[in-house]
Amino acid sequence: MANENMTGIPVHVSMIMDGNGRWAKERGKERVYGHFEGVESVRACVEAAVETGVKYLSLYAFSEENWNRPQAEVDTLMGLMVKAMANEMPALDKNGVRFMVIGNRERLSNDLNEVIDSCMAQTASNNVLTLIIFLSYSGKWDILQAAKRMAVEMLENPEKADDLLDMDINGFDRFLATAGIPDPDLIVRTSGECRLSNYLLWQGAYSELLFVDTLWPDFRKEEFRKAVEYYSKRDRRYGKVK
Ligand code: FPP
Which pLDDT score, from 0 to 100, does residue 141 have? Predict the structure, then answer.
């Protein structure tokens, strides 16, 4: 959803959580140890988002490409998601956090889908912060599924063909998996990598980008506040002249 935010506080902050494996390796531990520690950073960022007045916090937790990791790591990560969601839900709900998962859920296990459905239902009416976990997600997947949904709608309603020709950019938004969610004002990637890795390709068209060297397990409240401060100093023009 288009979002021309001109205020100092970002409405929607999105994080590409990267560097868990390296963080663990630096300590002579298995990669999964970095993922466990990464959950602590998730909790810290949720708290910091609430404290700074950010309304949407989204996290790139697992990409479509991540399915190609060794099966043992994929299994550990999926198990970690189930546990983390179940454990954190009472506190999230108590603090008014609405929980959402966006991505290709057909690829997720029944266990995981069940816990996601229950967490989403339990927190649906909360409005302090919306926490979105992008799981089995990629930007190209999203654009393609949106195009397919649009094509099906047109095939089923040929009389609407003129509406399709008249459709503008905002009209296409409703087919995306993120329909109704403001586009991210700020996308932060940790661990020194400077790329989007197939994340929010449509929605991130005007996002401010911040690449920090901090590895995700070390990205806590102070780093989150610094990212918001960085954003508040940006001059956003959306292609216009001020
Ligand atoms: C990237 O680090 C991190 C991931 C692919 C997984 C992140 C997931 C979590 C922290 C769990 C989140 C849980 C919930 C409920 C949201 P990497 O493994 O690519 O690190 P590397 O680049 O150092 O190898």
Answer: 98
Alpha helices in the chain (DSSP H): 20-26, 31-52, 71-94, 110-123, 139-156, 161-166, 169-173, 221-232
Nearest CA to ligand 1 atom 8: 61
Q: Which atom of ligand 1 is nearest to the CA of 25?
A: 23
Cβ-contact 154, 165 below 8 angstroms: no
Candidate of 14, 15, 16, 18 to mutate for ligand 1, largest count of ligand atoms within 8 Å of Cβ: 18
The pLDDT tens digits of the residues spanning 174-197 come to 999 999 999 999 999 999 999 999
The answer to the question of residue 108 being in a domain is yes
Q: Is residue 11 part of a domain?
A: no
5 occurs within a structural domain: no
In a domain, 159, yes or no: yes
DSSP notation for 132-148? EEEEEE-HHHHHHHHHH
Q: Which of 66, 95, 104, 126 is catalytic?
A: 66
Question: 95 an active-site residue?
Answer: no
pLDDT at 7: 66
Query: What's the 103 CA to ligand 1 centre distance in angstroms?
Result: 16
Active site residue 235: no
> 22: Cβ below 6 Å to ligand 1?
yes
**Domain of residue 167, residue span:** 16-231
Tell me the per-residue pLDDT of 131-168, one tens digit each, with 9 for 90 and over.
Answer: 999 999 999 999 999 999 999 998 999 998 888 889 99
Residue 27: CATH number of its domain: 3.40.1180.10
Overall domain count for the chain: 1
Identity of the residue numbered 80: L
